[in-house]
Structures are given as structure tokens and as C-alpha cells.
UniProtKB/TrEMBL annotation:
Originating species: Lysobacter spongiicola DSM 21749
Cofactor: Zn(2+)
Lineage, top ranks: Bacteria, Pseudomonadati, Pseudomonadota, Gammaproteobacteria, Lysobacterales
Binding-site list for GTP: 64-68, 85, 107-109, 129, 164, 169
Protein's UniProt name: GTP cyclohydrolase-2
Record keywords: GTP-binding, Hydrolase, Metal-binding, Nucleotide-binding, Riboflavin biosynthesis, Zinc
Length: 219
């Protein structure tokens, strides 16, 4: 017992690989992609990959690591820029004929949908996106990108040309073992409703909304 328990505990605490569930066609206005489903056995979260073309490591892959935003991605919310960024990423991949979107189920920068609605309520009363998280007892960003490495490995992808404005995301992915060799800005969906939100992301979360460097060379 005393010999085996620590070993068992160590094995239980080690992150397990996401399980591939299946894949199907995903026709969109821009291309017919492949939609791949995975389940993370540790969190139970159902992550997605949306791919186009031959994915291997012969050339760096145009990629987006997109965090779930039900309000922006599915409900047309203009409080943020998520839905427009997702559309722009799929458009660019379609134009290039090759690429991948990892759609990670970490809603609300990891706090979940219910807490994001609580955060929005605080924002309606004057808080900014960071202050609202803090008032709820959360850090500004709770996301974890560890699942990305095994997901990309499933497709034989190692080197990314990442579409993001967030240098911290580039650093987090690199720390989690991915090679981000280029950062492509992805400016879309800016409007009067999300102007303050975007200004806060630039001022407090380090997002880069002008073409420039940060985290990895820009294209
Ligand atoms: N807690 C919280 N989460 C938010 C809020 N607005 C958007 N989100 C979530 O933020 C995540 C997207 O992160 P963003 O900060 O918009 O962008 P990013 O992924 O860091 O960077 P890009 O790659 O440039 O899009 C999604 O999970 C959204 O649900 C908010 O006001 N509060
Ligand atoms: Zn959003």
C-alpha cells in the first residue's frame, strides 16, 4: 500500500490525452472543412478542430486557437470581437486552402458561461472586463492551453502561423510546447459596442490591435 499508493496518485494526477471521437464534413460559406471531435478525459470538455487541406509538418500551418464565446460565436453579440475573428480565420484558411482552428471549450477566458454573464452584468454597471473578473474572485484570464499540443500532434502539426492579437496567448502556447513561428494579427468585428472592451484588452491584457511585433514575428 505504502509503495503503490504514491505511484497510483502520480499516474492519476498526470494529464491524460484527449480522446479522438470522430470527424465529419463541415460545409461553410467559405469552404467545406473537416470537423473533428475530441473529449478531454480530465475535464470532460468536448474540444473541436476545424481543418482544411493536408496537415503535416512540411510547412508551417495557418492556425487559430479560438476560445469558446457562445455569445459572440453563436448569438451575434457585439460586446466582443470573437465571432468576427472566427469567421475571418475560417475565411483566411479557405483562401489558403490549408489550416486549422482549434476550438477550445474555455468559455469566458475559463470562468464559464454563467460567470461571464455575471461579469457582463458588472460591466453594465461600469466595471471593465478585468475588474469584473476580479470582483467575482477570478484572475483576468484563467485559460489553459495544455490540450493544444496533443490535439496538434494528432494532425502531425508542430509549427504554427498563429492568427491572434494576444502576445500572451503566443507565450502560453510556446510554454505548452508549440512552435509559433509567426503571429498574424486578426482585426475584425470592431464596433461602437465593443470599443471600451477592445481598449481594455489593449491597455490591460496587452493585445496588439495595430500590426506590429509581440510574442512571435508578425507576418
Ligand atoms: N470573463 C470574461 N470573458 C470574456 C469577456 N469577453 C470575452 N470573453 C471571453 O474571452 C475569450 C476570448 O478572449 P479574448 O480576450 O477576446 O481574445 P484572445 O483569445 O485572448 O485573443 P485573440 O486571439 O486575439 O482573439 C472567450 O472565451 C470569451 O468568451 C468578458 O468580458 N469577461
Ligand atoms: Zn467573445
Amino acid at each position: 500500500m505504502s509503495q503503490t499508493a504514491p505511484i497510483a496518485n502520480a499516474l492519476e494526477s498526470a494529464a491524460r490525452l484527449p480522446e479522438f471521437i470522430g470527424a465529419c464534413e463541415l460545409p461553410t460559406p467559405w469552404a467545406t472543412f473537416r470537423l473533428h471531435g475530441f473529449v478531454d478525459p480530465d475535464s470532460g470538455k468536448e474540444h473541436l478542430a476545424i481543418t482544411l487541406g493536408e496537415l503535416d509538418d512540411s510547412a508551417p500551418v495557418l492556425a487559430r486557437v479560438h476560445s469558446e464565446c457562445l455569445t459572440g460565436d453563436a448569438l451575434f453579440s457585439q460586446r466582443c470581437d470573437c465571432g468576427a475573428q472566427l469567421e475571418e480565420a475560417l475565411r483566411r484558411i479557405a483562401t489558403e486552402g490549408r489550416g486549422i482552428v482549434l476550438y477550445l471549450r474555455q468559455e469566458g477566458r475559463g470562468v464559464g458561461l454563467a460567470n461571464k454573464i455575471r461579469a457582463y452584468q458588472l460591466q453594465d454597471a461600469g466595471a471593465d472586463t478585468v475588474e469584473a473578473n476580479e470582483q467575482l474572485g477570478f484572475p483576468a484570464d484563467m485559460r489553459d492551453y495544455a490540450v493544444c499540443a496533443p490535439l496538434l500532434k494528432h494532425f502531425g502539426v508542430q509549427r504554427l502561423r498563429l492568427m491572434t492579437n494576444n502576445p500572451a496567448k503566443v507565450s502560453a502556447l510556446q510554454a505548452a510546447g508549440m512552435q509559433v513561428i509567426e503571429r498574424q494579427p486578426i482585426l475584425a468585428g470592431h464596433n461602437t459596442a465593443n470599443q471600451r472592451y477592445l481598449e481594455t484588452k489593449a491597455a490591460r491584457l496587452g493585445h496588439l490591435f495595430a500590426a506590429g511585433t509581440g510574442g512571435a514575428p508578425t507576418s
